[in-house]
Amino acid sequence: MGVHGLWDLLAPSARKIKIQALEDKTLAIDISIWMIQMLQGYISYGKEDFQNAHLVGILRRIVKMLIYGIKPVFVFDGKCPDLKKQTIRIRNDQRERKVFFPLSHE
Prior knowledge:
Blueprint: H1 6-10, E1 26-30, H2 31-44, H3 53-67, E2 71-75, H4 82-100
Parallel strand pairs: 1-2
């Protein structure tokens, strides 16, 4: 979901940093993005049957942050904005079609 074109807008000011540079800082984390990353990562490695994979991955990230003295603040999505509802409905419909009709060539 997210904001279309956000990364293109931010790219000129983006820079990679080492995790140590965040020591003793407070960091806001979009927990829903972490969950999606974890689930997609385990699925892409053929471990989709790994129970609670997203929780294990998130816990590992949290532990690493705490080792470096980073204080995580987790942000959870609230109610879906009206602007996104149609997009979410379309994605859900597409997902349902893939589940119920796995042999279709969409």
